[in-house]
Design a protein that fits this description.
Length: about 270
């Protein structure tokens, strides 16, 4: 009997990386050329991190200078292997380090961003966690893709979160427009809703009729928008996104150039300070 089970009607396939891992292995998708560069943030438990310090620096360098300046990242922390718990829902994902409790053996958690320091320090601050990828789950090539996409995704959160939650967060886009951060995120949501989710994982956070809405009490629309935005940032900077469509996976913005243009503008926007 299969010890892994779904959690009934609340089960969300986007939390299981099985199809993503298979696509990474078989599609021919590969990492873009990135330089090896120094990483300007501390690393804790680095033996658990499956990317080198200079690889992390190279991935960070994919972000425009203004985006890096706006990041609230404090430290990157290596973590032991973890999976989404079998009781996870799209509204309340749960993590376990016990594979017997996992949603499935491929429902691995590659990365996470922890905002606890923000609550403790009362200033926008976040730590990125990178989880050890089980050797039995993926090949070395796929492990690198999983961790790179997860890391870029979490850096995206460190840039997006202040836009969503800091009231006076104001951005000057490259075209000169001055936009409140939350208004910018809501505009992104309007653009994104005109299309299918950018990735299989992003589909976890769409509600009925492909909208960022749900009648479930624990649904957080800001979280949903943030997850889609960070998957979109990763697709833009890395050039791939597993979505179940091989051609679009390798060309994520083929059907949505206006979304790519918005994300490019957002990442290059300058923080307006009083």
């Amino acid at each position: 009997m299969n010890r892994y089970k779904s959690s009934g009607p609340e089960y969300t396939s986007g939390l299981d990386m099985r199809e993503t891992l298979e696509w990474y292995q078989n599609s021919g998708v590969k990492m873009p050329e990135i330089p090896e560069m120094d990483f300007p943030y501390p690393l804790d438990h680095r033996k658990l991190i499956g990317l080198s310090e200079r690889e992390l620096g190279g991935l960070l360098s994919l972000f425009p200078d203004n985006a890096r300046k706006r990041s609230i990242l404090r430290v990157v922390v290596g973590q032991p292997a973890a999976w989404f718990h079998q009781d996870s829902t799209s509204e309340q994902p749960k993590i376990t380090t016990n594979p017997a409790e996992a949603l499935s053996e491929t429902a691995i958690v590659p990365s996470y961003i922890d905002y606890t320091p923000w609550n403790e320090l009362r200033v926008p601050t976040a730590d990125i966690w990178l989880f050890k990828i089980p050797q039995t789950a993926v090949s070395p090539k796929v492990k690198k893709l999983v961790l790179a996409e997860g890391f870029v995704h979490e850096i995206g959160h460190s840039i997006v979160q202040p836009a969503l939650y800091v009231r006076d967060h104001t951005l000057k886009f490259p075209d000169g427009k001055i936009v409140n951060g939350l208004e910018a995120m809501l505009h992104f949501a309007e653009l994104a809703e005109q299309h299918s989710p950018i990735s299989h994982y992003a589909s976890t956070y769409r509600g009925p009729n492909n909208k960022f809405e749900s009648d479930k009490p624990n649904y957080n629309v800001k979280t949903a928008i943030s997850e889609e935005m960070c998957e979109t940032i990763a697709a833009h900077l890395l050039g791939f996104a597993y979505c179940g469509n091989d051609s679009r996976g390798k060309n994520p913005f083929a059907d949505r150039p206006e979304v790519r243009d918005f994300v490019r503008g957002f990442l290059n926007a300058e923080l307006v300070t009083s």
